[in-house]
TrEMBL record, chains A, B:
Pfam families: D-Glu_cyclase. This is Putative hydro-lyase SAMN04487868_12447. It comes from the Bacteria. The lineage of its organism: Bacteria, Pseudomonadati, Pseudomonadota, Gammaproteobacteria, Pseudomonadales. SUPFAM superfamilies: PSTPO5379-like. Belongs to the D-glutamate cyclase family. It comes from Marinobacter salarius.
Amino acid sequence: MNTSEYSDFKAGLLDQVSVLRANIRSGTHTSTTSGTAHSLVQGNVVILPADWANDFLLYCQSNPVACPLIGVSQIGNPALPGLGRDLDIRTDIPEYQVFRNGERAETLTDIRDVWRNDFVTFVLGCSFSFEDALIRAGLSIRNVEHGQNVSMYRSGITTQSAGRFHGNMVVSMRPFKAADAIRAIQITTRLPNAHGAPVHIGDPALIGITDIHTPDFGDAVTIGSDELPVFWACGVTPQVALENARPPIAITHVPGKMLLTERLNEELAVL
Amino acid sequence: MNTSEYSDFKAGLLDQVSVLRANIRSGTHTSTTSGTAHSLVQGNVVILPADWANDFLLYCQSNPVACPLIGVSQIGNPALPGLGRDLDIRTDIPEYQVFRNGERAETLTDIRDVWRNDFVTFVLGCSFSFEDALIRAGLSIRNVEHGQNVSMYRSGITTQSAGRFHGNMVVSMRPFKAADAIRAIQITTRLPNAHGAPVHIGDPALIGITDIHTPDFGDAVTIGSDELPVFWACGVTPQVALENARPPIAITHVPGKMLLTERLNEELAVL
């Protein structure tokens, strides 16, 4: 690829994300964003009142593997200019989960009616970025191959508490043969802003997962007898911390229905 | 460490290796070099008649993970100036294994009497370099902790044939808990000239090892129920290829009794 080809490539991606975003904004696209705009960074989202923002910022900084911060908004401003030219966080996610006092309340496809002038938006990197990198390296990802959402579990791994936020880590799991698992560790190490290297490999019970076939979020996938389950920290972890912190209101994306940004996955790589 | 401290550090290492080399040269030190001069590169050695050298060179280049070449001598010259100031390959290994027509024949502590003017020496990187890097990262290596030689196995992984050289890969195994195994994969990826990342992790049967408790070379180590066996390509692999190629004569080190060089392990790192 030469520089001119790169410009065309990036322009094509931005056109593609503009169409997708218009469909999400209008409520036409309400399903998972997995497999869409796959060269571009997708983000986990947490929206909180400003008086909860400092605690949450500290929680992210204390748990950078589960909560790699790639964007924070101004108070009350629904734009995220560092992540997209005309992003509006009130309309640009396929489906939102509202939490009230830590309980999962309504889901919405648009949060303009519940938006508040003291809301702060946090965007965290997402494993979809490293899935793209793994596929480009020739690896096959079971949930992508089968058109499923990734398997996610409430693990027994504790996170670092910060203010009112605390709880166990949510992990995503993808099965690989050993050689591919080793390659996946190498590739994801390059992408600390997309959760980086796995946190566990092998026996699920060692991280407190009693039934690998029943994920807490997403879909179950088959695991071959010659495969190892490989576990990454997951951006759903803050939703567990929200359940524990019980802010009067908080809004997140629905797992798998992410914010599409205009940043390239490759821009998140450290080497 | 500042530059002056680095100079002192390196001078100290060279003094240390000079003493060790003198003891090896005089036949006083005939045991494993594991745990000695641990900041310095140790090498696997294969010595062959010149008319076998081209095939072997191609074999190494075709199998760089098992056979990372870090030095090749001039024909008939026992010096290796790139690896040490006054190295003499005829005297500077604790114990040599002579192969005759592919069969393990005598072992010697000095090969001056069998040296030939057509011999070519090949030196390959060794896992002792990455053991040093793992220990510096705070990992505990079972065989080092217990003062044992590492466990090595004839695996079912085939190598790329080259001329008369062919055969399966020998692998070394170290058990780790999952998080340490992941860290070990990251660290050894930096050191491709010391075998680099593992070739397998988990079930030994998947790479043709039927009894993990009975290594083909080195010592058996305990593996905890919460640990995964992690397998790296091993510089003993060429000895299997020698058994198959059956050159009239070849000389190697005895596994675990390596050539001490004056190169720092850190000089082998790619990043």
